[in-house]
Write a sequence for this structure.
């Protein structure tokens, strides 16, 4: 019987990070300023390894290269998705990401479209999401003259909010917010503004004004969201977004939730509660494997697993590759 791939997260120290990945999720952290948990990643800057089964100890990029059948023989040189949990104790830099064409040409890697599910948010916490410039010339002028209040669009957020952040969107996560981020597997970030913070070397952190102006979508347009919820008894599936890169869902389990493979494979993160993942063997009657899962568990359901059940009381965020991934 095919097994899920449980993954060990990789932690990234950040100037704006805190300790909530320990206090909220219970992870043992290597430093006290951890901003990112790369929960499901095959990116070379932080590659997860498998914790169970016949592939135990292997890295996700190795599985992509050598066992593509696990991923439905998907095309592509790199595993296309990356799941993170971000803890913003302080404001992140104001930034923007390129699309695939620009990223591959200038950085040698994919562009970065992403989306955010807000796990926690302090009262009054806000994000920067978009800008007010009408032309690229106005965008450059507002950046160069530091008119941030006139340029940046601020939105207050709360637990449970969801945002789609296409490449070309100026954005920043504000202090006091923890999110789960589903994104293309890219680590290319162009900083527009960083509050004049200094890095470990005592110098202001690098900005990327030319690249930012070149890749930013002008004028900003909010992507339309068509959020759909399907109830299954007292449990539910909420479809947040479908893009060429990824489809993202929330699975709210209160009792039992039965699901089937909708894409080539599925990435799953438990963000609240605990319960069981039950895999049925399609070739053997009444043959199942049960796995205990809880808050902070991350796994991939490979292509060969076509149906599963979740039991207990928990909240999970799941994603699958889109048509262009």
């Amino acid at each position: 019987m095919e097994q899920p791939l449980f993954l060990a997260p990789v932690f990234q120290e950040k100037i704006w990070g805190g300790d909530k990945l320990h206090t909220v999720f219970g992870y043992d952290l290597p430093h006290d300023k951890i901003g990112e948990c790369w929960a499901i990643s095959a990116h070379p800057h932080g590659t997860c390894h498998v914790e169970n089964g016949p592939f135990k100890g292997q890295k996700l990029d190795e599985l992509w290269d050598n066992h593509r059948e696990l991923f439905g023989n998907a095309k592509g040189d790199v595993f296309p998705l990356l799941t993170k949990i971000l803890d913003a104790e302080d404001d992140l830099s104001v930034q923007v990401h390129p699309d695939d064409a620009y990223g591959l040409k200038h950085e040698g890697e994919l562009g970065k479209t992403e989306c955010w599910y807000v796990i926690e948010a302090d009262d009054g916490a806000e994000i920067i999401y978009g800008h007010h410039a009408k032309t690229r010339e106005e965008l450059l002028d507002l950046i160069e003259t530091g008119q941030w209040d006139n340029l940046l669009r601020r939105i207050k957020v709360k637990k449970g909010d969801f945002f789609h952040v296409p490449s070309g969107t100026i954005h920043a996560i504000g202090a006091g917010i923890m999110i789960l981020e589903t994104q293309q597997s890219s680590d290319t970030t162009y900083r527009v503004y960083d509050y004049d913070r200094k890095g470990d070397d005592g110098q202001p952190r690098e900005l990327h004004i030319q690249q930012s102006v070149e890749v930013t979508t002008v004028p900003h347009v909010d992507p339309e969201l068509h959020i759909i919820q399907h109830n299954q008894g007292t449990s539910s599936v909420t479809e947040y977004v479908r893009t060429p890169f990824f489809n993202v869902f929330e699975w709210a389990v209160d009792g039992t939730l039965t699901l089937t493979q909708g894409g080539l494979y599925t990435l799953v993160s438990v963000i609240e509660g605990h319960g069981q993942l039950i895999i049925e063997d399609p070739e053997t009657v009444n043959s199942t494997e049960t796995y205990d899962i809880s808050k902070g568990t991350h796994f991939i359901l490979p292509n060969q697993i076509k149906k599963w059940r979740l039991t207990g009381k928990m909240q999970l965020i799941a994603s699958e590759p889109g048509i262009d991934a």
